[in-house]
Amino acid sequence: MSTSLLFSNIRVSLACGWGRGVKHALFRPPAVRPQPRRSVIDMSYSSHFMDFKGSSIPSAMKKLLVTKLSQKFRDAVSLQTVPVPTPGDGDLLIRNRFIGINASDINYSAGRYDTSVKPPFDVGFEGIGEVVGVGLSASAHFTVGDTVAYFVEGAFAEYSVIPAKKGVRVPAIKPEFLAMLLSGATAHIALKKLGELTEGQTVLVTAAAGGTGQFAVQFAKAAGCHVIGLCSSDTKAGFLKTIGCDRPINYRKEDLPEVLRQEYPRGVDVIYESVGGDVFDLAVNSLAVKGRLIIIGFISGYQSDLGLAPVKAAALPVKLLKKSASMRGFFLPHYLSDYGEALASMLSMYTRGKLVCEIDRGDAAPGGRFVGLESVFRAVDHMYSGGNLGKVVVALGPEAESKL
Length: 404
What we know:
Blueprint: H1 3-15, H2 20-27, H3 43-49, E1 60-66, H4 73-76, E2 77-83, E3 91-100, H5 104-109, E4 121-122, E5 126-134, E6 147-151, E7 159-163, E8 167-169, H6 175-195, E9 202-205, H7 213-222, E10 226-231, H8 234-242, E11 247-250, H9 256-263, E12 268-273, H10 278-285, E13 287-295, H11 316-323, E14 326-329, H12 339-351, E15 359-360, H13 376-384, E16 391-395, H14 398-401
Parallel strand pairs: 9-10, 9-12, 10-11, 12-13, 13-14, 15-16
Antiparallel strand pairs: 1-2, 1-4, 3-5, 3-7, 3-16, 5-6, 6-8
Helix pairs in contact: 6-7, 6-12
């Protein structure tokens, strides 16, 4: 327990009349006969703020840790048993029920985001579950039993301590809400701030049936745009049609460059690009006059030593200049001032039946559904194989899996 939380507990015990033995032990005049020794911490206070519906919190838990920097997730990450952490004054302790898988998990395990951080360190970006522990200051906004989703490093664990200010209260523990945190917010903010969408424009979404692509398709369609979605199977193409995609293209069956040349000779106004490599090159060549290319990732190269797939960028300045086109990168942590508004908008759309959050639970993956931290490795493999349809999630324990 942190020193700040320890003294916070003492102050509350004194102010509320709890633990009078503590008060007497601290301020007893010398002449008073010594009282039996008692703990400095009033454990009735502790159990009240560190329990959920009377269930016990174990002393140990499982979590994933990066123990070696590598773009090969199985080599970089190990499953370990560690003590369950205690929340600090402004923190929440979350019992995770679902955790989200992202392409950037590999970049993180390879140490590409912050080269100053050395192993061992936590991994995983998003989770959803119940609040089972509350720090004193955090109790002004949350209580034990609240259902909370969060976007904080270290989510690949059975229990996570997060700053209360980063917790998002959600109506229920559903993986659909988890899908909005990073994947949905990326699409919402990127298209709004960088896409400058207007009705009647043409928008191309790469990896359109993936975790973030599915949202980009829907937001572009909601803005009145004609939407093209790239995907790798007829099943995915069928799904894209159900969420409003005007022209799904299965690039494994159709000649993608030829389709774009023949059907969209004027070019594409906005491209939401997450693949990189040859797809990036095609995207640049497909831009319309004054077109905008938004780079939200380049997953095709993440598993390589450099983290990048080669692109034909030598003529890039000329290509952009000739079309008065632009290219901008998007990294969600740089747009956190827009995060609250995006989440509120998505939650509203979802509750009104205006937003689909497709979840991939691993039913079609080798080994079946993703349940337990051990299955995170399979879930990452599944996503990188291109087999996922929607947001990949892992259920932590059979109780959470039964909610699916």
